[in-house]
Amino acid sequence: MASQNLRKQEIVVVWFKRDLRFTDHEALFYAQKQGLPVLLMYCFEPSIMNYDDSDVRHWRFVYQSLMDMQDKLDNLKARLYVFHDEANAVFKALMEEFSIITVFSHEEIGNKLTFDRDLELKEFFKVQNITWNEYQHNGIIRKLKSRNDWEKRWKQKMLEEPKLVAEEGWKILQLENDFYDKLKGPILKKEITQKDPNFQPGGETTAWKYLNSFLKERYVNYSKHISKPALSRKGCSRISPYLAYGNLSMRMVYQYTMQHYESSINKRALSNFVSRLHWHCHFIQKFEDECRMEFENVNRAYNQLVKPKNETYIAAWQKGETGIPIVDACMRCVTATGYINFRMRAMVVSFFVFNLWQDWRDLHFLARQFLDYEPGIHYPQLQMQAGVTGINTIRIYNPIKNSEDHDPDGVFIKTWLPELKNVPSSLIHEPWKMTEMEQQLYETVIGKHYPNPIIDIEATRKAASDIVWSFRKTPEVRSEGNLILQKHVNTSSSFRMNSKTKKSAKPKLTKKAESKIAGKQ
């Protein structure tokens, strides 16, 4: 009878999701203060890994991030436990062995699948009398009632003192080997655990290297190179995947950037960068406020706009075989490396939804290609670019003009379309206009070595423009648009790096925070 009355060990759990770091981690910060053993855990959940928006490149990045965290824990002779199973199954199994008092995590602004998972676990924790403490994800506010003071609250969040975890005295729980082996699930695929040099590696250590090199050197060309498909690869910060998976907190990025602002030789570039940090959170907030935009037109009036699915067009676009060099180069580049810059992303989406006249909901392929895929940015941006919000300017990008403006010598095109390597810059943007003699001279036969365009750019642009603008003028679209403006847009203020903002934005980091940052340099 006595053995049946033995009490289970009381523990708290820090459940890592899209917050794979130790610096400025609120969940871990508060878990450390409980005085109970802390179980550190992450779950590779099969249902999420097999979802339409998921790719091995995402999970390789997560795995590398976890390994980077484990490297830091090795010095403490501690472990972050990685499970390959659904989170609810893992928690249920842990409950058999331990008395979980509190679960600590950050709020996740993910897809519907992760949202439904969280709802299920919330109910499970409630039944089991487990407290679940969730902390705000960067500047995103859950259950926000009005956008009227969102700008102010975002700035306040960015200026808060970072939540820096203790360097010593971590009371980290060690699981029995037999128990963990039984619970951890099948081994991950080699594709996930092996490095791929074509992609940015995950991890907080690497994240800080990228941020440091940007703020100390590369930022000077930020505004000048941001739209260039080749030069942006170095001129932009390239920290987007590290924000997407939480290797960096937005607060630390903001404060560290402002530490460099006064001494910078190109303040305009850093002002533009900080503005984009703000817009990053702005779009995720829109998605949090109305997550149906993962599946539905945010402006319901556009439900009447039906686009017939053309599998041939979609396949050509995905493979980079549309016959439009800048589009094809972008698609091959993002497939191979997980990155293209913002303007090129907008352009390939524009080409897909307007020139090919395909539905934005068939763009899960892009979500799988982007290493920095963030649902809260992806879906609002797709809808805005597809012109189905009814409130944003309809932008139909001209791929030829963008090619000539941002890759004038065809350097980017030739990097990703070697079949066009002999074509001179004067012809590289529209190679189908080469004469037969020129095709023989440059050893590039259009229709053989490189395809003819699958559509007429100007004709499809005009047709799409006429249809979308006619919808835009209807009373139904305008009425829905007014409702969207009321819900998602704060007309009383906007974020700009004016003199007042710059003065108030200067954070005063504690010595502990400065020491932490110094250790990342």
* Number of contiguous helices: 27
Mean pLDDT: 91
Sheet with most strands? 5 strands, parallel
Q: Which percent band covers the strand fraction?
A: 5-15%
Structural class: mainly alpha
Q: If strands are numbered along the chain, what order do they take across the biggest sheet? A: 3-2-1-4-5
- Spans of 5+ residues with little confidence (pLDDT < 50)? 1-5, 503-510
User: Which overall shape is indicated by the principal axes computed on the Cα atoms?
Assistant: globular
Assembly classification: single chain
Helix content estimate: 40-55%
The tally of strands reads 5
Report how far apart the termini are. Answer: 58 Å
Overall radius of gyration: 25 Å
Please characterize this protein's 3D structure:
The chain is mainly alpha-helical and 521 residues long. The chain contains 27 helices and five strands. The protein has a five-stranded parallel sheet. The chain is globular, with a radius of gyration of 25 Å. The relative contact order is 0.11.
